[in-house]
Amino acid sequence: STAIYVFGDDYTGSSYDPVIARITKMNRLQPNGQRLAKIHGVGFLSKYTTGRFAILMRELTKRNGGTFLALPL
Questions:
Q1: Nearest alpha-carbon partner for 28 in 18, 40, 17, 39
Q2: In 3-state terms, what secondary structure has residue 62?
Q3: Per-residue confidence of the chain (73 residues) as pLDDT tens digits?
């Protein structure tokens, strides 16, 4: 199986919906009911970042069979 790992600390986009919709379209379901790839996320949290990256990655990993890990700096 294929896994995609996303590392980040902030998301500056205006909305989560276009990102989630695009990835959902690209990472389509296979005949066996699983996605083409699992998407995992690692977030680096500090007092200088917003929670937007964590919000986006929690939703993406949930929808794509992955795991989100938040690490404080």
A1: 39
A2: helix
A3: 899 999 999 999 999 999 999 999 999 999 998 999 999 999 999 988 889 999 999 999 999 999 999 999 8
